[in-house]
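Field notebook, page 700. I keep forgetting to write these up properly, so this time I am using the form the group agreed on. The chain and the ligand, HDD, are recorded exactly as supplied. Prediction of the bound pose follows.
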Amino acid sequence: MSADDKPAHRPGSFEHLVSDYGAGGEFHQHAGEGDPRLTTAQGVTISDNQNSLRVGAPGPTLLEDFVLREKIFHFDHERIPERVVHARGFGAHGIFECTKALGDITRAAPFQAEGTITETFVRFSTVAGSKGSPDLARDVRGFAVKFYTDEGNWDLVGNNIPVFFIQDAIKFPDLVHAVKPAPDRGFPQAQSAHDNFWDFISLTPEAMNMVMWQMSDRTIPKSFRTMEGFGVHTFRFVNKAGKSTFVKFHWKPKQGLQSVLWDEALKINGFDPDRHRRDLWDAIKAGDFPEWDLGVQLFDEDFADSFDFDVLDPTKIIPEELVPVEIVGTLTLDRVVDNFFEETEQVAFCTQNVVPGIDFTDDPLLQGRNFSYLDTQLKRLGSPNFTKLAVNAPRGCPVHNYQQDGHMQTGNRKGRVNYEPNSWGEGPRAHPLEGYVSFVVKEEGEKRRLRPESFADHYSQARQFYISQTPAEQGHIANALIFELSKCQVEDIRARVVAHLLNIDGALAETVCTGLGLAEMPDPAPAARPTRQDLPPSDALSILKNGPEDFSGRTVGALVGNGVDAQLLAALKDALSAEGAMLKLVAPQIGGVRDSAGMLHVADEKIGGGPSVVFDAVVILPGKEAELIAGHPSAQDFLKDAHAHCKLIGHHGAEALIAATALQAKVDGGYMPLDAASVEGFVKACRALRFWDREPTLAK
Ligand code: HDD
């Protein structure tokens, strides 16, 4: 609990509950001396906030009671429409520091000089679930960054996956309808494991690359802090001379990539549906500020012409091996919001928000997005004046224009001039040199509804993604597909997806077909282009090949009992703190345990409230309470889950618990006996995050 989470009054006291009965028998709870006065929205001090104005006791309540009516009226109107997608999200403030100037490539303000600091606001989100849905849903994560640059706001509205399901914005409403709860029954919530989603996907071959990413562990990140972000589309950088360079944006977490396992995700959702938002809040509050490097892939028309795929096709990546990612700056999130609604809920990201030096391309998905975001903000926020809200208003530069009035206007210009040109000698004018100038592109062609042929290869990069994964990751993709398709009730839909998998990887299709118990392998789906077998694997596409270098920022959960070895506990705490990691205690009571030297250690969680799924590694140190802990079902789950989730397990005196969970015969190299001398070795082993060798043994 941080200082500002602590209540002001003494523990156990009722001093802030000053209550009495007035002379007429009225019950009051009121301010103490010096407390700020409670007022109506009109500033009138309220005498009684507990009782409405009545005739007699209990009496009819009077319509005259403006205090009651104003309070209820405002409450009745508190909700605004949630975002049609990305409704569940969490935001934080930060700064972006340029570490490599790009003045020759772009005139965009954040990149003009090394060391330039630009304020930012970031909102992470899931896509499909409603505002109250759990954080660990299998879903794409939004990664939206608002840069308050000196030349206006630039919004980079990306995801944690570098490709998208569809190639044209016209298909977006269908995609979203298909994944959201079915309209007749209103479920399932926050999941893609249902017929409508897979029906749509199985009829949308262009989605297959994204489906591979979606079925990978990318969609169940350990934390927002351990996922990448991508701008997805190809954008343009434009320099002062008007020269354009294509650019793709990448956010690379300094914390390393890390995801959870599907079974963990399911359990975390039950134990702590707010896991990701709590994690970000706690880390920032603790001063452990998460950081991401901003990388750019820069390329020109010649590369675009020679590349195997169309750089305007948002279902394709450009492998880092072909165009390296150059790091040009670092984003640091260092401040939580003061108010969730005012900032996180009301922040309005728009892909159309670009600044001089950044421009769009003809990517048909991006073009459609540029309409959708501005449009949706009016619906959500109810007024075109949403740009005046502090979280949305530009910070580094003045705003001068003749836009006026509208709901909740607070910033109309003073004076009589509200048009341009005028001869009053007042008011802002456009500036042809400093203003935003769209990059000049010659366009020609027939006006038709068409999809370019250069967008036609739907499988080659899906295959490339799949073959870039480690065997463990490939196994997770197969399991995810089997899980999701098993939730589809219509066998034909399952078979249609397997038919697409055949175009990606025969062995994967075989595993999924068997896992589903399909009567027979379907024929491959008709493909507009044959799958290329020659695209080489790319290490950048794997999570496990891009994990953290150390165990910093991670947490070990210690199952402890009274009498826990004092020396061992101290050594463990020291070793973890030297690594930048934390130890959390899970004890029979939240009040804590006394160690072998009689010292009290307050617990972070009670057994049952702190399951091993929320920790990166565990230690079992039951002290004198080995039997009691061994008999506790939640303690057994703690160990069984840590085992099943391939976690490192340090232990001392845990034989009874290991026996109670029948794991004696399965103790492997991921189990490490602990004493004060071996804790450092344990912490080093934890850097691997998982003991993957265990995974193939689990089903046996
Ligand atoms: Fe979108 C929100 C990311 C395609 C229409 N989108 C939204 C957010 C993110 C993305 C991160 C949440 C912003 C926030 O935190 O407030 N969207 C993407 C990416 C896409 C994408 C990376 C593909 C590359 N989106 C996309 C299309 C359309 C939309 C094709 C419509 C044609 N997206 C919206 C929206 C949302 C939105 C309806 C809902 C709430 C909002 O905008 O502010 O306009």
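OBSERVATIONS:
- The chain has a mean pLDDT of 95.
- The radius of gyration is 29 Å.
FOLLOW-UP: compare against the apo run.
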